[in-house]
Specification:
Structural class: alpha/beta
Distance between the termini: 54 Å
Helix content: 25-40%
Strand content: 5-15%
Shape: globular
Bound molecules: zinc ion
Number of helices: 11
């Protein structure tokens, strides 16, 4: 019954659409910069590989524009350096520009000094390209956890107001299963907004998008997000990448079976699923939803 009500409702908010404003986030990197593919592509060759990020971001901007949805774009400094006009288009359409670091190295592979250099460099490049202040940061591959919580102090010290870097799950590449599940302010003043999980039988299940959104049936993803909104009474944080809507991206040679499965699964279904997601939930920018938006303009 409820499903039919959702489907038949048109123009404006569907009857079953959740009232909660959820955060829509895009991690702006290209297909060859994904951490899992790092063993197969030397980062020194990045400038010689076909870039597809700009065309894919433009498709995303169109998709969001159709529903007048505002989102947060966690963008690599490396990308902003090469595509400043794309960054200006993101900002010009009313989206939040945030940082994904400079070169997509996992924080767990950097020293505190290297991390400080990476986030400072990314913030400077993004702010110059976008003409706006950048206050948000997301670690590549959610690579902040128990072993490197010092990174959250570095973020506060370098002018970031929030981080969305911790995934409170167990995963072979990342995760901090005992971390708080929802946004919380740290002693250093930084707000950490963890990736969304669903609590089931004393375990946290990943419910924040990414590869799981392509792996699971859409109805399952929708059910999980609705549970978070309605049972936990919290906004969800959803993320995806520009390369996930690009089934025609060049295939990388020699990739192991598991990584290949995770990266290429259901790319062709992604855009349709995203459209449904935009229809079924209300979406907004991280800074607006979590109250970090009081410094959006750079002083002139
Ligand atoms: Zn990333």
């Amino acid at each position: 019954m409820a499903e039919r009500a959702t489907r038949s409702s048109e123009a404006g908010r569907p009857a079953e659409q959740s009232a909660t404003l959820n955060a829509l986030t895009i991690d702006v990197e290209d297909y060859f910069q994904v951490s899992a593919l790092a063993p197969y592509i030397d980062r020194r060759t990045w400038d010689r590989v076909e870039c597809r990020v700009e065309a894919n971001v433009d498709r995303i901007l169109t998709l969001l524009g159709e529903r007048d949805v505002k989102a947060t774009f966690f963008t690599l400094g490396w990308i902003a350096e090469r595509y400043p006009s794309m960054v200006r288009r993101i900002v010009g359409r009313g989206h939040e520009l945030a940082s994904h670091g400079y070169g997509h190295q996992r924080v767990s592979e950097l020293s505190p000094t290297q991390f400080r250099e990476d986030v400072t460099r990314a913030k400077r490049i993004l702010e110059a390209a976008g003409g706006c202040r950048v206050v948000g940061y997301r670690a590549p591959s959610f690579s902040i956890g128990t072993a490197n919580l010092w990174a959250l102090d570095v973020l506060a010290e370098t002018g970031h107001r929030y981080s969305s870097s911790i995934y409170p799950i167990r995963h072979d590449h990342y995760g901090m299963p005992d971390a708080p599940r929802f946004a919380h302010r740290l002693a250093n003043g930084l707000l950490e907004v963890p990736m969304t999980t669903l609590r089931v039988m004393n375990r946290n299940l990943p419910s924040s998008g990414g590869g799981y959104f392509r792996l699971l049936p859409y109805a399952t993803s929708r059910w999980m997000l609705r549970r978070v909104n309605r049972r936990d009474h919290h906004p969800a944080v959803f993320y995806f990448h520009p390369w996930e809507i690009d089934p025609a991206q060049p295939r990388i040679d020699g990739v192991d079976l598991k990584t290949r499965f995770r990266h290429y699964l259901n790319l062709g279904r992604m855009e349709v699923r995203l459209r449904r997601l935009l229809h079924d939930f209300q979406w907004g920018r991280m800074d607006a939803i979590f109250g970090a938006d009081n410094a959006s303009a750079l002083p002139s």
